[in-house]
Amino acid sequence: MSQPCFCPGELLLPGEPISVEQWACPSAGALSRESWQELEARGENAPGAMRLLVPDALLQRVETGQRLAAAKAAMERAEETLTRAVNGVVYLERTLPDGRVRRGLVGLVDLEQYDFAEGSRTPVRAPEALAARQVLPRLDRWEDAALQSSHILLAADKSEAELFAPLADIQKEEPLYEGNLSYGGGSVKGWAVEDTARLNALAALFDAEKAPEGAVLLAPVSGGEDLAAARAFWMLAKEELSEAEREGHPARFCLAEVCSIQSPGLRLAPAHRLVMGVQGLPLLAAFRTWCAGQGVRLEDEPAPESLRPLCFVYGTWQRQVWPTGGRWPLAAGLLEAFLQDYLQANPACFTDRMADEAELRELAADGNTGILLSETNEDLFRGLCGGGFLPLGLFAPLEARQQRYELECRRIR
Predict the structure, then answer these.
(1) Looking only at Cα atoms, what is the longest distance across the chain?
(2) Are 233 and 137 in contact (CB under 8 A)?
(3) CA of 31: how far to CAs of 56, 58, 152, 353, 358, in Å?
(4) What are phi and psi for residue 336, nearest 5 degrees?
(5) Among candidates 258, 261, 260, 265, which has minimal Cα distance to 90?
(6) What is the pLDDT of residue 212?
(7) Angstrom distance (rounded) from CA 256 to CA 226
(8) Where are the alpha helices (DSSP H) in 156-209?
(9) Alpha-carbon distance 148 to 135, whole Å?
(10) Apex CA 136: angle with CA 134 and CA 139, to 5°?
(11) Residues 6+ apart with CB under 8 A from 322
(12) What is the pLDDT of the chain when averaged over all its residues?
């Protein structure tokens, strides 16, 4: 029997006296140490879900072991608070601070259908290579933990109309929760999806054997390291289980939210490149020479087969070029390959990534050259389907208040 890569499960929520604002917590992966401490300083007024978490910014510190122990102890006590359960998925509408709305589904990723190894072609796909140092510190969150909450946000290669078609008119029903989010995160409204007809229709979208036009392809746009840690933990845990035990074991699944890559509430911004130690014209000349050797033409105007433009910036000078031809599905991948070769041949130069175009332009002078990328949401899956991993750091991280808030939980033992 086929298994969808994203499926329903038992999702836990606090009882009705506790509001969304009192419970939901900003992404454990997004906030700085200072921002997290600012929230902690609120004491009893801090979001309740914070007690179950150790944020990324406080991993691998002297006190990390104590924080993990305290979080896992808080999970044991959370049974008194998490008194509502949804046996299915949660459909939500998240209104971001700027007013944009992102629709999503909260459910479980089947980790047997996700792999972050190079060359993987699984239905849930890692967009970029992950180093052991990004994954290993997060494994401790799973060991002996009673609960999982999640800030993992996955994008689906379907429109909102396709993704949420089985949920027509659900907004007319009584919501499961509704309220503002702490830390200026906007607001959220969610509905329980538990009836068999809707769940079966949703499952078919994520099942390669049942989807009429191909199953949904998923990729993390936030929380990818935590998804990889969940997969690594499952690969360790499954070795001690029989085939029958593996089928429904809680460690095989990971809580996450899925949204459409076309959602107006999801804007992926490219991380531009700053190349330090070289002026603009010499760098562009070196790029032209390198591209010619790779069978790539740099056009001054876009052609039908051109990739996204690259804009070289140095002081008040700038030059935009459109790469055409070659084996790279994304201009950013072509640029990354060039920079690897260029930096190896010019060890006095080095690069940095930054999302802020104004900051890049300010620094692109006096021996530093900026290169503005133009990749957008639609390039996420075009790059994944055409060339495996995306260029390292192609997209800048979502701003903290735009990331998924930790709200729903699930039992994992």
Answers:
(1) 66
(2) no
(3) 8, 10, 14, 19, 23
(4) -60, -40
(5) 258
(6) 57
(7) 10
(8) 160-163, 196-205
(9) 17
(10) 120
(11) 298, 299, 300, 301, 302, 303, 306, 307, 308, 309
(12) 91
* pTM exceeds 0.85 for this model: yes
State both tokens at 73.
């102890």
N-terminal to C-terminal alpha carbon distance within the chain: 25
Helix axis angle for 224-237 and 132-139, nearest 10°, is 60
Place of tokens 């299915």: 88
Strands (E) in 21-121, as ranges, are 84-95, 101-110, 114-115
Q: Do the Cβ atoms of 229 and 254 come closer than 8 Å?
A: no
Q: b/e for 40-49, b at 16 or more Cβ within 10 A?
A: eeeeeebbbb
Query: H/E/C letters for each residue in 355-373?
Result: CCHHHHHHHCCCCEEEEEC
With cut-offs at 50, 70 and 90, classify the pLDDT of residue 209.
Answer: confident
Coil, helix or strand at residue 173:
coil
Show the tokens assigned to 371. 């290169």
3-state secondary structure of 198: helix
Neighbours of 352 (CB within 10 A): 14
Give the tens place of pLDDT for each residue, 255-304: 999 999 999 999 999 999 999 999 999 999 999 999 999 999 999 999 88
Structure tokens at 288: 């032209």
Strand segments, DSSP code E, in 96-158 are: 101-110, 114-115, 124-125, 147-149, 153-156
CA–CA separation, 29 vs 27, rounded Å?
Answer: 5
Parallel, antiparallel, or unpaired: how do β-strands 84-95 and 317-324 relate?
A: unpaired
Contact 82, 12 (CB under 8 A): yes
Per-residue model confidence as pLDDT tens digits over 127-154? 887 777 778 888 888 989 999 999 999 9
Given a contact cutoff of 8 angstroms between Cβ atoms, the answer to whether 27 and 403 are in contact is: yes
